[in-house]
Every structure is written in structure tokens, then in C-alpha cells.
Amino acid sequence: MKEKIQKLEQEIKEALSSVRTQEELEAVRIKYIGRKGALTEMIKSIKDAPPEDRPYVGKMINVLKASIEGRFKQGSASGAPVPAGKPSGIDSSLPGAKFDLGSKHPLTQAIDEICDVFLGLGFRIVEGPEIETEYYNFTALNIPDDHPSRETFHTFFLDVAAERHERTGTDHKALLRSQTSTVQIRIMEKEEPPLQIIAPGKVFRPDATDASHSFMFHQIEGLMVNKNIKFSDLKGILDLFCKEMFGKSTETRFRPHFFPFTEPSVEVDVSCMICKGKGCRVCGRKGWLEILGAGMVNPKVFEAVGYSPDKWTGFAFGMGVERIAMLKWGIGDIRIFYENDLRFLKQF
Ligand SMILES: [Zn+2]
């Protein structure tokens, strides 16, 4: 009986391997597992086998039948001629399945590119928490208690208990940081100068969303502290950065401005990379684009972190990553960065 089953199995395998069309496959099916097929007859004869062999023989026949039925299903489902000698259905001559490679988000690319310029100048990347307190976001940065930026329509305050600032023993409300300048304070509290850091990260402001505003965006903050750091150092480094970022022919312009945490403070413009300074729609016909704020660290900020303003000087700067990415790639609407539209993302 066992030999008969094995012989039949071999016979069926050979018959299947020579099958080339759907009709031939059907003929094989009828011959072996049709109503009067050889395998069907064999199932009927299990009862004639010695009782002790029946479970084993039954199992062998069932396994064989299941595998052959599977093979017929496969052949008829595809409706295609069955390739000879390849019952597994794998055709190594077919082209492989194509899959798309991912790429970095344009904002990540912009952050990497900006950071690379400063890493080359000896800066190091640091990070700080997105959930902050009023102390780090305002107080230590010399932003007075009655400053309008501390109001709820300029800052997301969090509905949690106030947090005590260890060193000063004062309590401060929790908030989502509205600027990455918070990281300057956290690093200066922990480390002694000289310092050369950049801090990329997300910031949050309750602005209505439109083509140039978002309630969340990215900033990169920079800080350099050492002995005898001068305004000319700030100018040199930021001018070099702008040329690396927007091209060698880029010109920079430093305009006086006011920030509570720097004194003196400036806004930095670059010559418009679209019209090359002639004036166009993007630069509002001015030929210049504002891209960052900067200044010499206010001695009051040094006092807040326990540095002696007589011993150390430094400069700080901050820039919006989205704005730089929009200028660099000519993107007209900030919202497109957050929509995850593959038609947009695939261009980078
Ligand atoms: Zn222009």
C-alpha cells in the first residue's frame, strides 16, 4: 500500500511537470482526483489495508491529495499556462518589485545644512526642552514682567502647576517655548565659557495660520561666549554663514534693532537671491531679505546665569528655519511643509 502511494505520488509529479496548458492540467486533475481518478480509488481502498496501517496510509493519502489540490487551484486561479518544472510559481526572470526610497524632509535638510556651516566653524549642537517655564523663556533673557510677548495671545501657557527655579527659588508658569533662546540659558547655567553652541528646535506661538505663519515652526539659535568677543566677530561669522547658505555673491546688511537679551542688537538682511538685489515681488522691491536677528549678549543675561560680564563677552543669533528654506527653494506657503504631500516632498 505504502509503495503504491509513493509510486502514484511520483507519477502525479511527473504528469504535472509536463503540463503546459490549462486543458492538460484539467486532464491530469480528472485522471488522478476526479470521481474515478487513481487517487480517489486509492482513498476508497484504505479500508482494505491492515488495520494497524490505516491511520498512517490515510494520512499519507490526505497529504498528497491536499498538495495536488493546492496545485490545481493555483493553476486555475491564474488562468495562465503553468510553467513546466516550476510548480512553486517563482519565476526568477521577472523584474523585481520596485519600492520608493524615502528622503529627508526639506526642513530637516535645511536644519542639517545650517548646522553643517556652524559645525565647520567650531560650534556644537545642543538641545533643550520644548516645555519650558517663564523663567527660561523670558525672565533670564531680560524680558520684563510686563512685556507684551508674555501675554497669553503671544505664548502658549500650560495648565499645570508652576515650577520652582532651583537657583533663584522663584516660581514660574509652564509654557511651550516661543523661542530657542531658552537653550542658551540652560547651557550657560550648566557650563563655564568658552562656549560655541547652536540649538535647533521647534517653537510655538499662538499665531493664526496663513501663508507665512504657523503656530509651530523651527528656529536655530546660536551663542558664542569667550574673552574679547567683539561685534566684528558676530559680523564675520554671520556674513560667512550667509555666503555659505545662499551663495558666494550674497551680500549682508546689519540694521540696528532691539532685543531685550542683546545689546546692541541687529537684524541681518541678505541681498535677494531671486532678483540679485534689483527688487522683485519676493523682497517687496527692496532687494534685501531679513533672515536673522542677532546681537551682543546683554550683561544682564550673563548675570542671570552667574557669568561675570566684566570677564566674558559674547554674541547670540536666531533664525527661522522655515523662512530660510522658503527663500532657498522659492516656496511661497509655509503650510506646505506640514501637509506631508508626497508630490511636494518628492522634489527634495
Ligand atoms: Zn528680490
Structural topology:
Layout (H helix, E strand, L loop, with lengths): L1 H16 L4 H12 L4 H7 L9 H25 L27 H15 L3 E2 L5 E3 H4 L25 E3 L4 E3 L1 E3 L4 H10 L4 E10 L11 E11 L4 H16 L5 E8 L2 E10 L16 E10 L1 H7 L7 E8 H9 L12 H4 L3
Helix pairs in contact: 1-4, 2-4, 5-10
Q: What features would you describe in this structure?
A:
- The protein has 348 residues and is of the alpha+beta class.
- The protein folds into two domains: 2-78; 106-345, 2-Layer Sandwich (BirA Bifunctional Protein, domain 2).
- It is built from eleven helices and eleven strands.
- The protein has a seven-stranded mixed β-sheet with strand order 1-6-7-11-10-9-8, with helices on both faces. Strands 2-5 form a two-stranded antiparallel ribbon.
- α1 (2-17) runs parallel beside α4 and α2 (22-33) runs antiparallel to α4 (54-78).
- The longest helix is centred in the N-terminal third of the chain and has 25 residues, at 54-78.
- The chain is elongated and about 105 Å long.
- The chain starts with a helix and ends with a helix.
- Bound molecules: zinc ion.
- Residues 272, 274-275, 279-280, 282-283, 287 line the site of zinc ion.
Strand content: 15-25%
CATH class of the largest domain: Alpha Beta
* CATH architecture heading of the largest domain: 2-Layer Sandwich
CATH topology of the largest domain: BirA Bifunctional Protein, domain 2
Quaternary state of this entry equals single chain
Total beta strands? 11
Bound molecules: zinc ion
